[in-house]
Specification:
Order of helices and strands: HHHHH
CATH topology: Ferritin
Shape: elongated
Number of strands: 0
Radius of gyration: 17 Å
Structural class: mainly alpha
Oligomer: single chain
Largest sheet: none
Number of domains: 1
Helix content: over 70%
CATH superfamily: Ferritin, core subunit, four-helix bundle
């Protein structure tokens, strides 16, 4: 299978964004760890691993399509945040950007009549729905519990169970 140069470029752009997301989530995890939000630190480090897996899926897809996967240099991500809530707001915004980029990739594949790439991208469409729901659910906790120190601590501690619930749903749906 050979893909068009337009799709190859678009997927390489996506690889770059995924690599940036890996570093961003590591930076968020590092900030959380330094700040004493251990549950959130673990959450963001796991999220970085997941984004790395997504990036590798794109790399393998290009390699198998006899195209060149370009591994990008990455800019330094933001490393300081004003609050735990702000890390999750930034993460949601990032996931919304990924959703738009995946949808743009689907449009390119459809215009190119590349059914294989369209099929490959369907997994990412489902994944992005789940990612956005995950971060929206976490941000809702700030609305429900509040933003006082004890409430933020409870949210931080609840992240392991929230992530477990979402991961269980992913396993059921696949």
């Amino acid at each position: 299978m050979r893909i068009s140069s337009k799709i190859e470029k678009a997927i390489n752009d996506q690889i770059s964004y995924e690599a940036s997301a890996v570093n961003t989530y590591i930076a968020m995890g590092s900030w959380c760890e330094r700040t004493g939000y251990d549950g959130s630190a673990t959450f963001f480090f796991e999220q970085a691993n997941e984004e790395n897996t997504h990036m590798l899926k794109f790399v393998h897809y290009l390699n198998n399509a006899e195209a060149e996967a370009i591994i990008p240099a990455i800019e330094k991500p933001q490393s300081k945040f004003s609050s735990l809530e702000s890390t999750f707001q930034a993460a949601l915004k990032s996931e919304q950007t990924v959703t738009k980029l995946i949808n743009d990739l689907v449009e390119i594949a459809e215009k190119e009549k590349d059914r294989a790439t369209s099929l490959f991208l369907q997994w990412f469409i489902s994944e992005q729905v789940e990612e956005e729901i995950l971060f929206q659910t976490i941000l809702q906790k700030f609305e429900i519990y509040g933003r006082e120190k004890l409430a933020v601590y409870q949210i931080d501690q609840s992240l392991a169970s929230i992530r477990s619930q979402v991961m269980a749903k992913k396993q059921i749906s696949r």
